Amino acid sequence: MKTYSVIIIGAIFMAFSHFAGSNQADNTTITIIGQTAGATPFISKLTLVVSDTSVLKSIEFTITPKPGSVTRPLSATYSNNYLVSRGFEHPPAGAGEVVLPVYGLYDGYTNTVRLTYRFMDGSSKQDSTLITTTAFTDPCGYKNPKVLQARTRSTELSYDYIMVKGSCSDFSPAIIDTDGALRWVGTTGFSSAITTFFDNAVYLAHGPQLYRNELDGSFTLIGDYSSIGVTDFHHNNDHGKAGLLLEADTATAIESLIIEVDASGNVLKQWNMVDIITAAMVAGGDDPTQFVHPLAPFPGDWFHNNAATYNRADDSLIISSRENFLICLDYETSAIKWILGDPTKQWYQFPSLRRFALTLAPGSLPPIGQHAVSITYDQNILVHDNGLQSLGHTPAGANRTYASPRKYKLDLNAKIATEVWNFEMGQTINSPVCSSVYEDAPLNYLIDYASVGGLGIPNGSAQLLGLDAAGETIFYYEYPSDPCIVAYNSSALHLENTKFPRVGPQPRNLSARGFVSGGDNVLIGGFIISGTEPKTIVLRALGPSLSAFGVPDVLGDPVLSVYDSSHTLVATNDDWQTDIGAAFIVANALAPGNPSESATLLQNLVPGAYTVVVTGKGSTPGIGLVELYDLWPISNSAIENLSSRAPVGTGDNVLIKGFIVGDVESATVVVRALGPSLAPFGVSDPLSDPTLTIYDAKGAAIASNDNWQTDPNNIVLQRLGLTPPNASESALVLHLPAGAYTAIVRGANDSTGTALAEVYPLH
Fold first, then answer.
1. What are the DSSP E strand ranges found in 215-322?
2. What is the mean pLDDT of each run of 10 residues along the chain (763 residues)?
3. CA–CA separation, 704 and 711 (whole Å)
4. What confidence score (pLDDT) does residue 291 get?
5. For the sheet containing 701-705, what is the strand order?
6. d(Cα 333, Cα 279) in Å, to the nearest integer?
7. Which CATH class is domain 146-499?
8. Which residues are CB-contacts of 617 (< 8 A; sequence separation ≥ 6)?
9. N or C, which end of the chain has less CB nearby within 10 Å?
10. Contacts (Cβ under 8 Å, ≥6 apart) of 757
11. How many CB atoms lie within 10 A of CB 487?
């Protein structure tokens, strides 16, 4: 298999280096004058004196891993504006002190910390310091796991850090790395497993209250929900449509209310499952009092909500009822869309609920006592099936003596659920409650067996296990634990490149590679700037420098032109060194590798639709590459609807489109490949039957489609109004983690013609 992504996806973030002549890095003096221990040994604060803070753009710290470590270094970048907003730097501009929080240190160790200072003109310089920390007294045993399998250098895994949620101490939660080292603990002083990582901070629920715990150790109360009847929060703290999904108890309902709050703690929406299920049963002619018992405590509670997730593809909320099923609601109306569960349980006896049930495909097991529902990259449903039957309903349904993560593909047109993956470990692990499984990058999993040994069994344990994309066990750690106490609902974290403020999840960066000749056979890229603020971008058109990556027949002298929505020429460039922004392009390490290649700096590009056209000077043919770099991704504007059009031939002459999902969160996208429907727009010789394949950054194919109607998610395309106009065209709905991706458009049976590739982010 060819690996295309290496040569067609450019980095979206700037790489900085010294360049010729005087610059701000050389002219600015930064001195480390002290360090102060933080709230725990894992945190320290460096004090810097900066001769001119007005030219400082950002400061990055990187902690050097211990010898023998396999994990990527923990690193974070603070923008200068963020430091000012948090009170770590004091204006007015000029000489002053900056307090730099450093978190994720090893305790009881002399840490080497590298600092990178970046400046407004694109220059940078580095420094380093040593931070010696005291030992942390760990009451939970995170520092000393039983190593069932150590992570070794021969393994690959998409994540390196794990947030372990537990109520074993007042230092909740904990963050470990995949070497098994403890790297951070909570500082609120509360014992709580109801936590998640959101907006670059830990959000922790305690009683009816919600706290935000910064990685630098500070924390704030952001919400007290007793005024809306909440007496306690329980189980999970999950990501929702615009904020966090919290499971709540009230005086009138036990474990059956979900509320969504934003990052500031404001209530956005509520779903009362007592009311929703009651209404559905009444509408279906059943007596809800035979099933709904709002005040019954566990183990007799009727619903036992333990997790929820938002599916952006169809604007739905999927809720895990441990006692009964997975149930999917329309996010806006709360109407029930489908139910997936064990048909031998009580719920299935009621026609009003049974009418929503998905049929299990032959060979598929239903989820029982499931936890941690989530959406995988390919829009499948992932749960940890704990195997424990209902404790509050009769009949109680099937019972299994082992736990297993399971993934289901749903065909909502046929109302069929097919189990497409499980991990049963030889059906030997009994973990009946609290366990979880989450996917990070495609097919990379973190599995948490939170109650190994069962309920009420002495000398139990919790186990954390990592799987890579090849299905290999990468690490396997065990901790002494009563059920659900030490490791509950653990989740993968990406702390190797955290940015403050947070860069939100959105597909960014346009890149496309195709064959360029004459007439309609040129390379065309389209993008839309949405929002209210102008964008600063760099566009490049490459040809000769592609030869170094093994690309044959490259475009010898590419010419770049940019047009707005009224077809007015905004900018053009032949040789990049002639562009007015050439110095800026050099300073930001974006200079093309050949002087005959093109690049242009577009500052303050207002929101709107734009088209980029790459031609060959003198109509000379060859393979070319066009790239867009969003230099200021932190703003109230975004790059949307990335499209690329080019001729599709055979061999290397295919249409290759690159896009980046950034920065550390997932995004749901629709990717389309069009051909026949281009004909009405005057495109001659359109590709009659385009096929679409998506590759990750390592060149592995993760999804493909020929005809869009064959994909089970086509119902989502219909809802969104994004169905391709022609049945032979292709489309995929994907829930992708942060990273670089490549879409390759070919012609079925080596057919040729002009095609269009598009990426739509879903908001």
1. 219-224, 230-239, 244-250, 257-261, 267-272, 305-311, 316-321
2. 31 33 86 96 97 94 96 95 92 80 98 95 92 97 96 88 95 97 97 94 97 98 97 96 96 95 96 98 97 83 96 95 97 98 98 98 96 96 96 95 95 95 84 95 96 85 95 95 94 93 64 83 87 87 91 92 93 94 84 94 88 89 89 69 85 86 78 94 91 92 94 88 95 90 93 91 79
3. 9
4. 96
5. 598-605, 535-542, 622-630, 506-516, 655-662, 739-747, 690-695, 701-705
6. 13
7. mainly beta
8. 556, 557, 558, 559, 574
9. N
10. 512, 643, 644, 645, 655, 657, 671, 672, 673, 674, 692, 743, 745
11. 35
pLDDT at residue 92, rounded to an integer: 59
Tokens representing 483 are: 């059920």
At 476, list the tokens: 């396997």
Fold match flag (146-499 vs 503-761)? no
In 229-263, which positions are buried (b, 16+ CB within 10 angstroms) versus exposed (e)?
Answer: ebebbbbbbbbbbebbbbbbbbeebbbbbbbbbbb
Q: Which fold has domain 24-132?
A: Immunoglobulin-like (2.60.40)
Per residue, the 3-state secondary structure of 724-757, as one string, reads CCCCCCEEEEEEECCEEEEEEEEEHHHCCEEEEE
Distance CA(644)–CA(641), nearest Å, equals: 10
Domain range list for the chain: 24-132, 146-499, 503-761
pLDDT score recorded for residue 94 = 67
CATH number of 503-761: 2.60.120.380
Number of residues in the chain:
763
φ, ψ dihedrals at 633, nearest 5°: -70, -15
